[in-house]
Amino acid sequence: MAKTDEKVNDTSALGYEQARDELVEVVRRLEAGGTSLEESLALWERGEELAKVCRRWLEGARARLDAALADSGTEDAEGRDAGGRTGDTGADGD
């Protein structure tokens, strides 16, 4: 159980994929059963921490996407085309 306790305090350094993979393993162990009440509670707590880490990563990704989409919308409002060019290139070559 000491290993699980150590991991609870070490979630800040986890990337999204690491946290997700470990969360999947925690869920698998809980669903399989056969653990003591104390170990089950420790696993549950670890799962909650891992879920928070995943949620923070996903919220950060959403914020980045929203910012990128907002920037893209601003560019369109300024009259830029998909290539970032402004103004009318017209068919007459001017």
From TrEMBL:
The keyword Ubl conjugation does not apply. Keywords: Cytoplasm, Exonuclease, Hydrolase, Nuclease. It is an enzyme of class 3 (hydrolase). Its EC number is 3.1.11.6. It is found in: Cytoplasm. Residues 84-94 have a biased composition (Gly residues). It comes from the Bacteria. One of its GO terms (molecular function) is exodeoxyribonuclease VII activity. Residues 68-94 are annotated as: Disordered. InterPro entries: Exonuc_VII_S, Exonuc_VII_ssu_sf. Pfam families: Exonuc_VII_S (PF02609). It catalyses: Exonucleolytic cleavage in either 5'- to 3'- or 3'- to 5'-direction to yield nucleoside 5'-phosphates. Belongs to the XseB family. Heterooligomer composed of large and small subunits. NCBIfam families: PRK00977.1-3 (NF002139), xseB (TIGR01280). Bidirectionally degrades single-stranded DNA into large acid-insoluble oligonucleotides, which are then degraded further into small acid-soluble oligonucleotides. This is Exodeoxyribonuclease 7 small subunit. The gene is xseB.
